[in-house]
Specification:
2 copies of one chain form a homodimer. With 211 residues, chain A is mostly helical. The first copy, chain A, has a single domain, classed as Tetracycline Repressor, domain 2, CATH 1.10.357.10. Helices cover 63% and strands 0% of the residues of chain A. Chain A has 9 helices and no strands. Chain A has helices at residues 22-36, 43-50, 54-61, 64-89, 93-108, 118-123, 131-157, 167-184, 191-198. The longest helix of chain A has 27 residues, at 131-157. The A-B interface holds A 36-37, 39-40, 120-121, 123-125, 127, 138, 141-142, 166, 168-170, 172-173, 175-181, 183-184, 187, 189, 193-194, 196-201, 203-206 and B 36-37, 39-40, 120-121, 123-125, 127, 138, 141, 166, 168-170, 172-173, 175-181, 183-184, 187, 189, 193-194, 196-201, 203-206. The structure holds a DNA duplex (30 and 30 nucleotides).
DNA sequence: ATGCTTTTTGTATTTACTGTCAGAAGAAGT
DNA sequence: ACTTCTTCTGACAGTAAATACAAAAAGCAT
């Protein structure tokens, strides 16, 4: 990326100074996109939340689509990198899956954030003309599935799962459950309920050969 | 309902005769809503698919919202009543769940229909102002979860599942998986792959006390 | 200090598309 | 001929994303 994510208003620059901080505005835009999805989040609503007028938005972030893509990058890095790392580094497959789904439930149903997953919300009902967003969202979802598959193959290799385990299918099921949970998170249930659902994920793992 | 679902153009009636069959037009509208969701399906696009001009659409179906609700009723009855009945009538819980998810995979990824589930597609990114649609969609999703829960309680009662089984959580997980699968169905995979994922559902059931 | 350049701000507008409908003309039965 | 119902053309009001334009506010050179 050419523009750094953190940037305080530069004082030593020519021209009229910004009235807002770029990153704070981006966070506000993220909140709106996260809650509403891409198309229902109108530019005027974004502007209102960001405390900015349309011309400033376009001068700073390009257009609505590029603003969304940048918010999406920020979202991924900020919220999903940590659970992904834990999933891949925790040696026990059962604990790895359990921890991942538990943390996922915390992300998608936290009092500090909008409910659900921004990627899932954006994946549905996106206009065909937004090819770049479609491409990026598909990529992210695909990466998540691949991550599950890779983690499962590793567990098979070390004998934590039976050799006959259908890793691609199971990875797909985990991905489906994860995205399904993010839909449930928008239905006004308690985090404890969502966590109880998420805890069912580990049960999909086949019994290990040594007990 | 006041209007019957099937209705052939009545010949013995006064006035200029209809150029289209009501049910066929409704089916076409269903296809569009199923594929695109509620708001992205514009009236002009619906009219094009239905072979009808806007005034005819409004005279026949009221408005866009009521057209959607009627298409939704038709959808439910036509596609989801059969698997639901089988789920509740099949005595063995494992076979019941397996059959349900297998048939669900056939519905949401059939060459004859749009991919995914219309209810799920409509549940995401629906405007707050469409209160009636929101209410109905929430009701349907809630009913599905209750159906799972009821079926699980019955299985516990007859000893097919351990008494300590957390039926509400498991029902929620099944519902999440089902809706998640409907999202995967839109990603261009083969039905065989989707069915392999769906087959993972039964493994979330706890081992029965008698083996 | 003063004028020039640079950048952002605010207002107000443009273009395109949305759901919905009024009104006139067409096509049937009585 | 008259009534009844559906057809089509065209338009309405509302909202969307995106921008033109001029005023405002900073640094810099003289």
């Amino acid at each position: 990326m050419d523009t750094p994510l953190t940037e305080t208003p530069v004082r030593g620059r020519k021209g009229r100074p910004r009235k807002f901080e770029r990153e704070k505005a981006l966070r506000k835009a993220l909140e709106v996109f996260w809650e509403m999805g891409y198309e229902p989040a109108s530019v005027s609503r974004l502007c209102e939340a960001m405390g900015v007028n349309p011309p400033s938005l376009y001068a700073t972030f390009g257009n609505k689509s590029s603003l969304f893509l940048e918010a999406l990058r920020f979202y991924e890095k900020t919220y999903w990198q940590s659970p992904a790392n834990k999933l891949m580094s925790e040696p026990d497959i059962r604990r790895a899956i359990a921890a991942y789904f538990d943390e996922a439930a915390e992300i998608i149903l936290s009092p500090d954030n909008p409910c659900g997953c921004m990627v899932v919300t954006a994946a549905v009902n996106i206009s065909d003309s937004e090819t770049e967003i479609i491409r990026r969202v598909r990529e992210i979802r695909e990466d998540t599935r691949k991550m599950f598959a890779e983690r499962l193959r590793a567990a098979i290799k070390v004998g934590q799962l039976p050799p006959g385990t259908d890793a691609p299918a199971l990875a797909g099921a985990f991905n489906a459950l994860l995205e399904g949970l993010s839909l449930q998170a928008k239905s006004g249930l308690f985090q404890s309920e969502l966590k109880a659902m998420a805890a069912c994920a580990v049960r999909m793992l086949p019994e290990s050969p040594r007990g």
